[in-house]
TrEMBL record:
Alphabetical UniProt keywords: Oxidoreductase
One Pfam family hit: GFO_IDH_MocA_C3
InterPro entries: Gfo/Idh/MocA-like_OxRdtase_N (IPR000683), Gfo/Idh/MocA_oxidrdct_glycsds (IPR050463), GFO_IDH_MocA-like_dom (IPR055170), NAD(P)-bd_dom_sf (IPR036291)
Residues covered by the GFO/IDH/MocA-like oxidoreductase domain: 141-270
Organism: Pseudomonas baltica
GO molecular function: nucleotide binding; oxidoreductase activity
Tagged with keyword Oxidoreductase: yes
Protein's name in the database: Gfo/Idh/MocA family oxidoreductase
Gfo/Idh/MocA-like oxidoreductase N-terminal domain mapped to chain residues: 4-121
């Protein structure tokens, strides 16, 4: 694999490298880590790369790697840049014959992503998005239980992702991560809604096994001078008849990353919390509450969940392991020949398109006078389900 972005100071790039290395399926062979040449070289040196494989920019990297013999060049380009480079880098990489694993959201807007989708469809390359929370075993277990009818027909979905790190104007204090997230040229048309709202949205659709078709949204910015939203509240209607509430905020002071989903059906409910990912709560109409725990050797857990676990019960697995599950599935798909654009088990273009359609529909509704706005998404039959 080769990295675009992720020089010194990048949290998410470090997480990607650690996750990719966890199961020993990928080797890092090249990178264009930073526009700052010294940062770029220091990062490459620290990672043990040959100097000639540390490139000055991503265009140079793609062109140079494409000229190398097939058994030497990178196979997978990992894109951990700010949002404005997600689609352009993926376009060039796919056209040059490389698979792509990108941070989300997939593009700055839906039109840009549709163009990338056409490029992907005209190729035989694989494409994935780092919706990491869809790599957690007990998220898959929840979905399997919904599909198997444990809680009956789904009626209500409540998903929330509060953070507190943008409660103050830290961009003006030199925080680079906050700075680019509030720049429409680099972040896109949405702030919080694109950064973490899309995580909540994809989790809701995945676990409930239904798609959002209509929404009513309120977006706001609570910090003076901030250009993009830092707080989002959305009412949703889903294709299987469920109604729901989606909350995403980055100004909930004191909160860390307590992403949480509750799904209620006619017979009971399920609850999963990212800060305690090994547990899945099952509530029933006529039975005591029970807590299902992750871990190898638990015969009551589904195959979809168990194959994403590495340790026996009681040994915590978390964010890095969830991301590592996406890398394992990507490695399997590449070694199997990489046909069909979609990586089984990994969020891909279909989820990217729905995420961008969600952002645009929410903004249209917020800015307009209509009570409800339809979520219209150019979609395909591609799905992460196995």
């Amino acid at each position: 694999m080769g990295f675009v972005g992720g020089g010194e100071g990048s949290f998410i790039a470090l997480a990607h490298r650690q996750a990719a290395a966890l199961d020993g399926r990928f080797d890092l062979v090249c990178g264009a880590f930073s526009r700052d040449s010294l940062n770029n070289q220091r990062t490459g040196n620290a990672l043990g790369l040959a100097p000639q494989r540390v490139y000055g920019d991503w265009r140079e990297m793609i062109e140079a790697e494409a000229r190398l013999p097939e058994d030497q060049r990178m196979q997978l380009l990992v894109n951990v840049t700010p949002n404005h480079l997600h689609a352009p880098v993926a376009q060039r990489a796919i056209q040059a014959g490389f698979h792509v694993f990108s941070e989300k959201p997939a593009a700055l807007n839906l039109a840009e992503l549709q163009a990338l989708d056409q490029t992907l469809l005209g190729s035989d390359r694989l494409y994935g998005l780092a919706h990491v929370y869809l790599g957690y075993p007990m998220v898959w277990e929840a979905r399997e239980l919904v599909r198997n009818g444990l809680i009956g027909a789904v009626r209500k979905v409540i998903v929330e992702y509060p953070q507190g790190w943008l409660s103050q104007d830290i961009a003006s204090q030199g925080n680079k991560q906050a700075d680019w997230r509030d720049d429409p040229q680099r972040s896109g048309i949405g702030g919080c809604i694109g950064d973490i709202g899309t995580h909540a949205f994809s989790l809701a659709e995945f676990v409930a096994d239904q798609q959002v078709y209509c929404l009513s949204a309120m977006l706001g910015s609570h910090v003076e001078g901030r250009q993009l939203d830092d707080d989002v509240s959305v009412l949703i209607k889903m294709s299987g008849g469920a109604s729901g509430v989606l909350i995403a905020s980055q100004v909930c002071a004191g909160e860390e990353n307590p992403l949480k989903i509750r799904v209620y059906g006619e017979l009971g409910g399920l609850e999963w919390r990212q800060e305690e990912p090994s547990s899945l709560i099952h509530r029933s109409l006529d039975q005591p509450m029970r807590i299902l725990r992750s871990g190898l050797g638990q015969p009551w857990l589904s195959d979809a969940a168990t194959r994403r676990m590495r340790l026996p019960a009681g040994h915590p697995e978390g964010y890095l392991e969830a991301m590592a599950n996406l890398y394992v599935d990507f490695a399997d798909a590449i070694q199997a020949g990489g046909a069909g654009n979609q990586v089984p088990g990994v969020p891909g273009m279909d989820i990217g398109l729905r995420g961008m359609a969600f952002i645009e529909a929410a903004l249209i509704n917020h800015r307009g006078d209509a009570k409800w706005t339809e979520l219209i998404c150019p979609s395909s039959s591609r799905s992460i389900a196995q």
